[in-house]
Structure formats: structure tokens, C-alpha cells
Design goal:
single chain; globular; alpha/beta
Length: about 210
Amino acid sequence: MTLEAAMRQVVNPAFSEDGKLLPSWRPSFGKGMADWWAEACWVLDFGAGLGRVAREVLLATRTTHVVAYEPDGALRGWTLPYVACGPVEEAGAAPPKARDGHEALWRRLHLAALPFDFQGIAFDGALTVTVLQHFSAERRGEAAEVLARAVRPGGTLLTLERAKADDHGRTLDALLARDGPFAVVRRRRIGEGEWGMHEEVLWTRR
């Protein structure tokens, strides 16, 4: 699988009208991550895909470790070269040599194919970016349980998901806060149009 093919499996990239990836494709957030998680902590990227957000966390911090959980082996296989080589417009279909200094990011990136792979780690933070919105109600419930077990009390969870209820009518608030151990710290609404309204919510683990 080429990098471009992998990118087309990643939710919410930016495409031009002719279907090509835009050079400006970036995560919706990233620069503020150093404010959410202190240095020398562990962060779980749940549904990491290609590693686009994991890379932003690693670049924003110097000593934070990221566990990138992605069950799709094709996407997971591109995570290390993507993190080292940069955005898709720089990496192209065949990633070049890692840019100076970015090899060090590999030492703080850990890949996981199953929740069992990171069992026992007390994460200081976790994040999901346009992942849970594609899950069925049952899978959302399973994901919420994994996140509740993974994040330590006092830790934080950041979600960026479409602002809608699942097919059982439950919102993330009901799933994570009312029926789970998280409490909302802040929220803001992002986007409109083709991709729909999304909510960026910062939660704390009670």
C-alpha cells in the first residue's frame, strides 16, 4: 500500500475538487497539546490511523511517550515512516530519509494492534480524533470502557468527534460522563458543511 492509498483510509483528510490530497492537510489541532499534557507523560492515541495526531504530540513535547493504537495493519505499517518524514506532501508515495532530528521521535512512539498491547499502562492522557463517530453503539461502549481503564484518575481525555448520538441515541456525554468516569472540562464546536459539525471536548478522569 502506498502512503497516498493509506491516507485515503484516514478519516477527514483534505481533498481538492479533483480528489487529490491538499498540501495543507493537517490535524485540526496539535499546537496546544503541550498545554494539556506535561512533559514525561504517556498519551494514548486511540484509533491512531497513520499517526497524524501522534506525530503532533511528539513534536509539541520533548519527553512525552505516545502509544498509537491502530488495529488496521496497513495503516500501522506507515506510522513510523510518516512520523519521521513529515506531512504527506513531503513524504510522497515513497517516504524519503527521515528529516534531521525526527529519528528521535521513534524512540517515544509505541505501536499497538490490540488493547492488550497497552494493558497495565496508566496513561496521563488519551485522545480520539474522528474515530468513535464511526463505531456502532456496541463498539462505542467497548471503546469507552477501554479508555476508562487506560486513563489514570486525574488524567485527561481529548475527543474530536462528530456531534451526534449513536444508533441507540446516546451521546458521548452520556457514554463517558453519565455512564462513565469522565467529566467535561471544556468543549467547543468545530466545522460545518460536508464533514458536519464536530465537537472538541476535553475531559478529566474522575
